[in-house]
């Protein structure tokens, strides 16, 4: 438990939304020496978009106003009119209640979406250039107890880094997760329990208006039914439309290996929904299967932790995966503001695990439940739209309206209590993942 005045060395593996937002916060703290290692040579624009909910915005504000600004500088109003009020409208598209609106999620004035590539560029601009290295793919991790650095990493190019703390923000196929849980642990690899296959197309709004009811090019509908739910997101001030169909229980495949979307299976859906399906089915270029993580029994061990999709990848249906990565970053940023000595790292990671694991696991479960509800697979719910309305209302309160200041405070309280009891053993019970 020696003392030191040198900066604490932290390596973040992965420069996605989680890794870069955390680095933006940690790089401001002069008692820390943080470096991000990202595997790709550069982030490419693949046309992917994100719509962040209120909890994501709150988490960014907690890390710093400049992080929130990076988002708002890059995010573009979904609608043609900047201040138009908009919500994600969840509507039944099949069955006796077809056409009924069951939820309006995230209603807000001037609702925005952001190109993932633009948002990453904004976050990157907040991290000093010399603290990020692209083209570094983590290949190996090991730990030692003697000497200054405790955690060692080797990249695929053979170079190494030696640090006090390793934070894995390396996405759904995380090497850090595999190291922490073990490659053979049942929760290590992502799974697609419900066999979800997603089909998507990106078209100009002018083209979309020729093919589908033009009202769906101005709103954010999710049209539900048992053989897939359909959604549309206007992008870039209403000039482009992203439309997709997600099918549960599908034959799985990616890209050219995917089974084509068959519009004839949707003949009992509303006419509007069928027209969107036909438009999506024309584009055979973008289809993939999606998965999530079974719950990890712990997010940290000693001086290593995982965050974001590496820790709790979820199905995309609750629209909260990036938000959860940002919540992780907000808590870690808050805790590392206090860490002055290497021996305090474990207390910080334990406190992070303690507050973030239950909530992020609940979001993974919720995203699965969204999928079942969207597919009419949740017992009797589609027959009772009132039950559906209550489900969505409760989910929105849980995800979007969470008290994130309290989450940070709870983590800090646990950290302080661990540090005060510095003589206690910080071993973890391997069965429960909890500190003992
Ligand atoms: C179709 C779809 C739509 C979505 N829509 C939304 C939405 O609207 N709102 C929302 O909140 N969330 C949404 N999500 C979820 C969101 O995209 C993710 O939860 C979020 O990107 C997770 O961020 P991350 O930084 O943890 O991981 P990632 O974004 O996956 O970043 C991980 C980074 O690590 C790098 N990396 C991987 N392996 C290594 C290695 N070995 N060495 C070094 N670097 C490595 C990768 O190149 C990558 O840059 C959506 C997801 C999908 C699939």
UniProtKB/TrEMBL annotation:
Pfam families: FAD_binding_3. SUPFAM superfamilies: FAD/NAD(P)-binding domain. It comes from the Eukaryota. Gene3D superfamilies: FAD/NAD(P)-binding domain. GO terms for biological process: secondary metabolite biosynthetic process. Residues 9-366 form the FAD-binding domain. GO terms for molecular function: FAD binding; oxidoreductase activity. Keywords: FAD, Flavoprotein, Oxidoreductase. InterPro entries: FAD-bd, FAD/NAD-bd_sf, FAD_monoxygenase. Belongs to the paxM FAD-dependent monooxygenase family. This is FAD-binding domain-containing protein. It comes from Lasiosphaeris hirsuta.
